Amino acid sequence: MEAIEVRDLTRAYGPVRAVDGISFTVGDGEIFALLGPNGAGKTTTVEILEGYRTRDAGTVRVLGFDPATGGMAYRSRIGVVLQSAGFEEEFTVRELVRLQTGLYPRAHDPDELIDLVGLADKRTTRVKGLSGGQRRRLDLALGLAGAPDLLFLDEPTTGFDPAARHHAWDLIANLRELGTTILLTTHYLDEAQRLADRVAVMLAGRLIGVNTPERLRDESHLSTEIRFGLPPNVSVSELPALSAPPSVTAGQVRMATHVPVADAGRLTGWATDRGLDLPDFAVVPPTLEDVYLALTEENPR
Ligand code: ATP
């Protein structure tokens, strides 16, 4: 079953076609990342799905509801983690989480939720005493309060330190194991690559790519980079014939290839035959960030 079905969705603000006829589906239990530059129309799309913004045209079904008319029955099934929720600063973490869980018919246990987001040692700390990253964790706990079937996560790790980001990624991956469908918006492409089953790239109100990160990469036809340090006393002209000429800067050899296995095989075979090491030899496929940049640059507004 599809958790989200969107067909021909449009929304304009005066002359600005913020969402310009998009269609996509998100499967039950899927983590789906909506990517795109500032102003692409992501927030407008997500807020229509949440039921907080009206649409001009198109059909939208989320968990079987039309968000525009689903009311409380719909809202109680979704969780929303916004970029900057305003908190009551004098409440403690536990008080806020208890208040939030009290709003839902079927809610998580407040203390388990606090543990889940890694705020166990901040249970009795007032909100005003939390760091930025800890506030984001509290955001996440509040979004999960009603044990939602579908979670909207808006830039969940902005401002997190590296360890906290990894913790949040583990947490989000655990939610997937529990069967929670997640619609994620993020500007961190490594986050999308790590978490998302499928990504959608939005630009100027349209979707210009929807697929798994791997298929988007294959469709992009971007090259893989092979790089290594040139061994001492070896000149670049001695390297074996490759599918494309390498470039050398400060002793570092780089080449872009569409046949990485063949070129890597030639290079390693050549080096092994001569008893040479290729320092820091690496075969680096394009990242989701490379694919995203190529897609958005190829499709000017
Ligand atoms: P960001 O990554 O910066 O959050 P976004 O992809 O979420 O951007 P939206 O906030 O959906 O983009 O905005 C899409 C377009 O609609 C932009 O051109 C924006 O200026 C315009 N827009 C958004 N909200 C309104 C509004 N309430 N009134 C008028 N124009 C708006």
CATH T-level fold name of the largest domain: Rossmann fold
Number of helices: 10
Structural class by SSE content: alpha/beta
- Shape, principal axes of CA atoms: globular
Small-molecule binders:
adenosine-5'-triphosphate
SSE arrangement, N to C = EEEHEHEHHHEHEHEEHEEEHEH
Look at the structure and name the CATH superfamily of the largest domain: P-loop containing nucleotide triphosphate hydrolases
Percentage of β-strand residues: 25-35%
Low-confidence regions? none
Give the CATH level 1 class of the largest domain. Answer: Alpha Beta
- Main sheet makeup: 6 strands, mixed
Count every beta strand, where a strand is a DSSP E run of 2 or more residues.
Answer: 13
Distance between the termini: 34 Å
Amount of helix: 25-40%
SSE map:
Elements: E1 2-13, E2 16-27, E3 31-35, H1 42-50, E4 57-62, H2 71-75, E5 78-81, H3 93-101, H4 110-116, H5 132-143, E6 150-154, H6 162-177, E7 181-185, H7 189-195, E8 198-203, E9 206-211, H8 213-220, E10 224-229, E11 247-249, E12 252-257, H9 260-273, E13 282-284, H10 288-298
Parallel strand pairs: 3-7, 3-8, 5-6, 6-7
Antiparallel strand pairs: 1-2, 1-4, 8-9, 10-12, 10-13, 11-12
Helix pairs in contact: 3-4, 8-10
Bound molecules: adenosine-5'-triphosphate.
Residues 13, 16, 18, 36, 38-44 line the site of adenosine-5'-triphosphate.
